[in-house]
UniProtKB/TrEMBL annotation:
InterPro entries: PyrdxlP-dep_Trfase, PyrdxlP-dep_Trfase_major, PyrdxlP-dep_Trfase_small, Ser_HO-MeTrfase, Ser_HO-MeTrfase-like, Ser_HO-MeTrfase_PLP_BS, SHMT-like_dom. GO terms for cellular component: cytoplasm. The modification N6-(pyridoxal phosphate)lysine is found at K227. This is Serine hydroxymethyltransferase. The lineage of its organism: Archaea, Methanobacteriati, Thermoplasmatota, Thermoplasmata, Thermoplasmatales.
Length: 429
């Protein structure tokens, strides 16, 4: 073999081991998911090696005859699924979708209101993220810890006094729907546009659960297409807005912030949109049911789960305060060794310098639900977390139990065809 073949093979070996690790683990990261066979197939197509700058049928390059058709279909499916007037499937990630909106709608010095990081806000909406890079003036909404949501009265006051050009809503720790209906009049009164970042909950919205931002006052939704929405790592923008605003946003996409738009991922997104039209409602309902039940099991097993007052969660996410169990970093590391993959997370009272050892854990049920986990498996997950963290059982022992549990669920569900989940697909022998 040639000189560097072994190194290339080493990368491949690591990728195989990675697949195997996830095949045997309980995946509970709230921002991840796995794809359907048909969507995965799209990622391997020649679309992934091409450019199609501009909009369908108005491109700058030749060779886009089929790309145009795929993009037209993807846009139509998105408009149908989300009942939006406009859809742009070109952003290559949620952050890119956000950046496009920021560049399209806001100029340096303009004011934007956003959820605070400590209330689960995403870094792209913070001063060191895209919002800050655009030189915007940021004001944060007041957060109500007991309700784990924005404080409605104080937020109305803030919007009326600060008069932001754009009000951005939506978080990365997103337990309960944003009270858009209660806030939209205040925004309208001062002429602010409502933009909803649905990165985490896009699949729940697609399934008609959680909330329906475009009917509750939002003009624009941005999202990642790989969290509760079980598609490729990509982004999307949805609109129910005037043509001028939409045109500005689309300029924010191209030429603003992308050149190629990962056409293979866009095709995978199109396939997933069709699958969500057929299976999304059932899937979203099950994700939320599992999250609520897992939260109550963890509480019963002795953990401090936030949001108790409102039934812990209405989404795919639940949040656990583990200050008394050794802190977020320790518990997340211990669970990883025990075959349970989740992440440590800032809780509302943590300040930013706690980000390496925050008080909490964030847990999401969307991936385990996609392979068929139900109520009894939620109970089993809770038991495994308890014996690892509270009873301090050896991680290797818990890891075996976790692998046993996982081995009973082999297929990707809520999609066309059946593919073994976490299978490594070889093209070269
Ligand atoms: C995950 C997330 C994003 C960004 O998503 P990427 O697709 O990873 O770029 C943006 N906003 C929120 C609220 C998120 O949770």
């Amino acid at each position: 073999m040639t000189e560097n073949y072994d190194t290339a093979q080493k990368i491949r070996d690591l990728a195989m081991e990675h697949n195997d690790f996830f095949r045997k683990s309980i995946p509970l990261i709230a921002s991840e998911n796995i794809m359907s066979p048909l969507a995965m197939e799209m990622l391997l197509t020649d679309f992934g090696f091409r450019y199609a700058e501009g909009l369908p049928h108005h491109r700058y390059y030749q060779g886009n005859f089929y790309v145009d058709q795929v993009e037209d279909i993807t846009i139509d499916l998105a408009k149908k699924l989300f009942k939006s007037d406009q859809a742009d499937p070109r952003p290559v990630s949620g952050t890119n979708a956000n950046t496009s909106v920021i560049y399209g709608l806001l100029n340096p010095g303009d004011k934007i209101s956003t959820p605070p990081l400590s209330g689960g806000g995403h870094i792209s909406a913070a001063k060191f993220g895209a919002v800050g890079l655009r030189g915007l003036n940021i004001v944060n909404y007041p957060f109500d810890v007991e309700n784990m949501n924005l404080d409605v009265d104080k937020t109305i006051k803030l919007i009326k006094s600060e008069k932001p050009k754009v009000c951005l809503f939506g978080q990365s720790v997103f337990l309960f729907p944003t009270p858009l209906k209660e806030l939209k009049d205040a925004a309208a009164e001062v002429g602010s546009k409502i933009w909803y970042d649905g990165a985490h909950v896009l699949g729940l919205i697609a399934g008609g659960k959680f909330q329906d931002p475009l009917r509750e006052g939002a003009e624009i939704i941005t999202g990642s297409t790989h969290k509760t929405f079980p598609g490729p790592q990509h982004g999307i923008i949805l609109g129910k807005t005037d043509e001028k605003t939409w045109k500005n946003i689309q300029r924010g996409v191209f030429p603003g912030t992308i050149s190629n738009h990962h056409i293979n991922a866009m095709a995978a997104l199109g396939v997933t949109l069709a699958e969500e039209l057929d299976y999304g409602r059932e899937y979203a309902g099950k994700i939320i049911e599992n999250a609520k039940y897992l939260a109550s099991c963890l509480a019963e097993d002795g953990f401090k789960v936030l949001g108790e007052k409102n039934g812990y969660t209405e989404s795919h996410t639940l949040v656990v305060d583990v200050r008394n169990n050794g802190g977020g970093r320790h518990v997340a590391d211990l669970l990883e060794k025990s075959g349970i993959v989740l992440n440590k997370n800032l809780l509302p009272w943590d300040d930013g310098n706690k980000s390496q050892d925050p008080s909490g854990l964030r847990i999401g049920t969307q991936e385990v639900t996609r392979i068929g986990f139900g109520k009894s498996e939620m109970k089993e997950i809770s038991r495994l977390i308890k014996i690892a963290v509270i009873d301090k059982k050896a991680p290797e022992v818990v890891k075996k139990d976790a692998a046993d549990l996982k081995s009973r669920f082999k297929k990707v569900k809520y999609c066309y065809g059946d593919l073994e989940a976490y299978k490594y697909i070889k093209l070269l022998n």
